[in-house]
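# nightly structure sweep
# worker-07 picked up a monomer target from the shared queue
# config: single-sequence mode, recycle default, output format = structure tokens
# input follows
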Amino acid sequence: MVHLVHGEIAKAKQHIITELKDDTSDIHLLIGDYDDNNFKNVNFVKIHQTYADKYKLSQFRENMKRLLRNFRSKTGPFKPETVVVEPWYTSVNNVSRGYALLYSLHIDPQKSSTINAMTVEELWESHPEFQKYALDNFKTYNINMKKLTDKKKMLITYEEAAYHEDMLTLPHATTTSQGYPFWNKHRASKLLEEDETSGVAREMKPQQLWKSRIEYQDFPLAVFRKHIYQERMKQLAAPYWQYKRNKNAKKRFEEVEEMMKEWHQAKFNKSMEGLIADWDNTVHIRDE
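# output follows
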């Protein structure tokens, strides 16, 4: 019975704390103006009836005063919660939401043109994820991100140019130095992947599988056997390493996609507000 009473009292106390934290709660109508030593405007009886009727009124009054003192001074259960901001960058596989969004904006050709025309203050104000970090810190983050993405874009451009140049100038060998085709460019590679996926390859010995398709016989049996085991290990391992490696990456990608949409919509809304303001000004001038 004692445990039940204590449990009901604890529940009532938590209920009152929750109501006090809610600015829209009716409990605030029963409190009125008060300070640490003057509670004459607090309707203890009504609060007791509404939120804590399991309490003895004599005990409730003093406990309620303590809660109100805590509420007024923002201490105890009303102490503001400390917001923990995730580090901007920890490692390649552990970056903040703000980092991921800023990277995506800088690396995207169209978005990067937009943000390059913005001041760093405007960019910082463009999304709540950026505003989690002090403006001075964000300025440094943005400078470093621009350097990083500019370097990556330059590298991509260089590699694409080099690739196209190689395609134009280099003779394309059709066979390896051992005299058989390149596996990754040969149709046999795709066929073996299909046979492994369907289970056909597991029902045959390597030699039987090799003889089952003319494409496989473009390779020596010893070479083909190695490709069977490579493909089998790849398919067996894929579900595990893809899950481990891509679980967090997929979640972060989806988050960034959503943040990019939010950012784009916010920019669009701001542009429309500017156009409407310009239109209103034009109409006002004409009316005059």
